[in-house]
Design goal:
The structure holds two protein chains of two kinds.
Chain A: E1 26-30, H1 35-50, E2 59-64, H2 72-83, H3 90-97, E3 100-104, H4 110-126, E4 133-137, H5 144-153, E5 164-169, H6 176-187, E6 195-198, H7 205-216, E7 229-237, H8 246-249, H9 253-271, H10 280-292, E8 294-295, H11 300-303, E9 304-310, E10 312-314, E11 317-319, E12 337-344, E13 353-359, E14 366-373, E15 393-399, E16 403-411, E17 419-427, H12 439-449, H13 458-477, E18 482-485, H14 492-499
Parallel strand pairs in A: 1-2, 1-4, 2-3, 4-5, 5-6, 7-13, 9-18
Antiparallel strand pairs in A: 7-14, 8-12, 9-12, 10-11, 12-13, 14-15, 15-16, 16-17
Chain B: H1 2-7, E1 17-23, H2 28-37, E2 44-51, E3 59-66, E4 73-80, H3 87-91, E5 101-104, E6 124-127, H4 135-144, E7 150-152, H5 153-156, H6 159-171, E8 176-183, H7 188-201, E9 205-209, E10 217-222, E11 225-231, E12 236-240, E13 247-250, H8 256-265, H9 271-285
Parallel strand pairs in B: 1-2, 1-5, 2-4, 5-6, 6-7, 8-9
Antiparallel strand pairs in B: 3-4, 8-10, 10-11, 11-12, 12-13
The chains are: A alpha/beta, B alpha/beta.
Chain lengths: 508, 286
């Protein structure tokens, strides 16, 4: 939306009931029959329509190969109905379905692309999408080049007087060089401000709450620094194995899969300085400052750990080890668990290690950030009284059981002065808050509005790779991979990693 | 209550407000369901109040419910006798400490909510002109007694329509010269819509009798053409903007829970509502 001095008379800035509805537009989903599209994108689009946040005449165009017997309409209908988080209203679906179009073919098929171009023109005329189209690449990165090239060739990538945006999901490359190559493929066709990288964690209420929590309250900022914080642990644990995703996962591993993006973003939000405002530019600058000054450890042998899960019992079921999974070669050295220490060289954080760990087939599914504080320098209690006292901790539970916990010492009821840790908890009730927007709803809406604060920019992607690349290279030089039984919390080397610093991992 | 909360497995006091619902024997089930369904978005302590007969000695019956399927708690108070004149004395000790109070009258609201003894405890007072026997009269009475924090569900029901009209003017940058609205008689929401459009656009807004009870047509005439929203009997409206083809949009009624959820999202004064009713009163008095 190009804007000059036009002010919409019906939009009073004080009118906070009126949602921002995107202007006329459509979303073109490449890979519409794929997993991401069915589980996340289509339900999110339905929920947005149900909440009245989509422009009238919104269109969804799907482009994918059609297997024999596949009914695109039915697939999308079922995906929306089973994944919708808001109430199912057949009337909302019916309206949305009027804007649904499908193009079947492979991405190198020019005839299919011509049909796509015609479909785009048709929805512009018929549905009033105004020439504004977001191209969502819900496809493996190896196909980005072909799709983006075809967008350019068939003149879909730009049209004066309207916007064209491209939306890509992680992984953004598998190291710094490939990330740059990927970016140059895209930037060849789309200008910077038209590229939207989705890190869906940034759409989560709990992740955005980190900013609200830190900066809306006066309580926490004064202690949010190396004077009071001992260390920070960021954990992203899954209880599932790789399932049928061997083709994607092998060769990638836990560090590239989630540490490079989700955990680095969480670290940036926890560590950043206060932004001067919440607009995209201000947030981005602060995240970049942190990532630019975050260092991998010098002694990677001591301060990193990685492992593969072996057969074990997870959640009462016996499961196979990584090397026995379908499609995984017996010689694979891909890690399913990765942990590393990062030091942030700023005045606020010097001397405070950030420990990041992620893995599959761990004890349970949990993502959390724990800020662990230093012990009080002197305590008037007898040593035995405080033996059970741990360190104060502020834990932000990203998922599940979304909320924030404060752990502190309290007197145990009884005649003696004995101190023990207690937890004070704030729960979102997010587990059953089906009315709260899902991350993808918010992110898709932001793409349609053209509002980028929650999208990592190229600089953040590159800086994150710069931190991780040396660690991955170090691991590649050693063929030895530690193991851990499925259902436990990771290899012994991870425990040693923290013990070396005199610390222990939380059991989340 | 703390014991019950522990028993239901949620020792956290994570409720964000107290919602007092002035209900009656015939409707208590539906009213409290609507209120407790809100608990997902706004976990709160819900206090339902039923006023019985004013005669006889003061009597109070109370029932407490801590949720399994929903977070928050609900209490139902039946008061009768002399206590009906001192309802606030029962409610006051039960309010959640140090947090906002919202009072909702699903029907039979007083004309002056902020002067009501329980209403004065709330910083938000929600009434619903459309539930009254004479909706337009009810709206006019309650807005004459407006105090900061008052809102009306007739206004809340207009949000999707207002959002669509605003979205239309995001697209069409031409100045609106005249507006026409068609509605059935006795529709307080139409009064509010007309007042809003007139105060924001500063142009004549003409009302005509439509075929239906609800607002069936809004037309904004601009230099570039006419923006119109037409809704017949169903829940789908036809939306037309100059330069584009007509589109169908869902514009059906929302559930009580959705309306209340919108009301509770912000608990400070609704300035736009306040400006709109000021304008409405000016038109009525002139």
């Amino acid at each position: 939306m190009t804007q000059t001095d036009y002010v919409n008379p019906l939009r009073d800035p004080q009118d906070r009931r009126l949602p921002q509805i995107a202007g006329p537009c459509s979303v073109v989903i490449f890979g519409i029959t794929g997993d991401l599209s069915r589980r996340k994108l289509i339900p999110a689009i339905y929920d947005l329509a149900n909440r009245g946040l989509l422009p009238p005449g919104f269109a969804v165009i799907g482009f994918a190969r059609q297997e024999p017997g596949q009914d695109f309409f039915q697939i999308v209908y079922e995906a929306a109905k089973s994944g919708a988080r808001t109430q199912w209203r057949e009337s909302v679906w019916t309206q949305l379905a009027k804007g649904l179009r499908f193009v079947s073919g492979s991405f190198d098929d020019d005839a299919a692309w011509r049909q796509l171009a015609e479909t785009v023109s048709e929805v512009d005329a018929d549905r009033g999408t105004g020439g504004n189209h977001a191209f969502y690449l819900s496809i493996p990165p190896a196909l980005f080049s072909v799709v983006v090239g075809q967008l350019k060739k068939h003149e879909l990538a730009e049209r004066p007087g309207s916007w064209r945006r491209v939306v890509i999901e992680k992984p953004f490359g598998h190291d710094l060089e490939s990330a740059r190559d990927l970016n140059s493929v895209i930037s060849d066709v789309f200008p910077r401000e038209s590229v939207f990288r989705i890190d869906h964690y940034l759409g989560k209420e709990t992740v955005q709450n980190i900013l609200a929590f830190r900066f809306a309250n006066s309580l926490f900022e004064p202690i949010w620094n190396s004077n009071y914080v001992d260390h920070v642990q960021i954990t992203m644990a899954e209880d599932i194995g790789i399932g049928r995703r061997a083709g994607y996962y092998d060769g990638i591993g836990a560090a590239r899969d989630v540490i490079q993006n989700h955990l680095m973003q969480l670290m940036a939000l926890i560590a950043m300085e206060e932004p001067v405002s919440f607009d995209a530019y201000s947030l981005r600058i602060e995240k970049q400052k942190i990532l630019a000054n975050a260092r991998p450890p010098e002694r990677m042998d001591l301060h990193t750990a990685r492992g593969q899960y072996t057969t074990g019992w997870a959640g009462g079921e016996e499961v196979v080890g990584y090397l026995q999974e379908d499609g995984i070669p017996a010689s694979s050295t891909t890690e399913t668990f990765a942990a590393l220490r990062i030091d942030i060289e700023t005045r606020r954080w010097a001397g405070v290690p950030f420990y990041l760990r992620a893995g599959k087939r761990l004890g349970r599914r949990v993502t959390e950030v724990a800020v662990v504080f230093k012990r009080a320098p002197h305590q008037p209690f007898a040593k035995t009284d405080v033996e059970e006292l741990g360190q104060n901790a502020l834990v932000m539970r990203i998922q599940p059981d979304e909320g924030v916990t404060l752990r502190f010492g309290s007197k145990v009821p009884g005649p003696a002065m004995e101190i023990r840790d207690v937890n004070m908890d704030f729960a979102y009730g997010g587990a059953f808050a089906e009315h709260s927007p899902e991350a993808y709803e918010r992110l898709i809406l932001d793409v349609l509005l053209g509002d980028p604060p929650l999208f990592p920019q190229l600089e953040e992607v590159e800086l994150s790779w710069r931190i991780l690349d040396p660690v991955i290279d170090h691991w590649a030089r050693s063929s030895k991979v530690d193991t851990y039984p499925a259902g436990t919390w990771g290899p012994e080397s991870a425990v040693k990693m923290l013990a070396h610093d005199g610390r222990t991992w939380r059991r989340p | 209550m703390v014991r019950a909360r522990h028993a239901s497995g949620s020792p956290a006091m994570d409720m964000v407000m107290t919602l007092v619902v002035i209900t009656d024997e015939n409707n208590v089930g539906g009213d409290l369901d609507a209120a407790t369904n809100l608990s997902r978005e706004h976990p709160s302590r819900v206090i339902g109040m039923i006023h019985g007969s004013g005669r006889g000695s003061a009597n109070l019956d109370a029932k407490v419910r801590v949720g399994e399927e929903h977070s928050g708690e609900s209490i139902l108070l039946r008061i009768s006798g002399k206590l009906t004149k001192h309802a606030e004395s029962v409610v006051l000790p039960l309010l959640l400490p140090d947090s906002p109070v919202v009072v909702w009258w699903p029907r039979s609201a007083p004309d002056n909510p902020s002067a009501d003894s329980v209403g004065s405890l709330g910083q938000r007072r929600i009434t619903d002109a459309e539930s009254a026997k004479a909706p337009v009269r009810a709206l006019r009475a309650v807005i004459r007694n407006y105090a900061a924090g008052d809102t009306n569900l007739a206004w809340t029901r207009l949000t999707p329509l207002r959002a669509t009209l605003a979205a239309a003017l995001d697209q069409v940058h031409s100045k609106v010269t005249k507006v026409e609205v068609e509605t059935g008689p006795g529709n307080p929401a139409a009064d509010l819509l007309v007042a809003w459009l007139s105060s924001r656009l500063k142009v004549p807004v003409v009302t005509r009798r439509g075929e239906y009870d609800h607002i069936s047509s809004v037309r904004m005439h601009t230099g570039a053409g006419t923006v119109s929203i037409e809704r017949g009997a169903g829940t789908v409206a036809t939306f037309s903007v100059p330069g584009s083809t007509d589109r169908q949009i869902p514009l059906g009624p929302r559930s009580l829970t959705e309306l209340l959820a919108e009301e509770l999202r912000r608990l400070d004064e609704d300035d736009v509502y306040s400006k709109t009713i000021t304008h409405l009163l000016t038109r009525l008095d002139s």
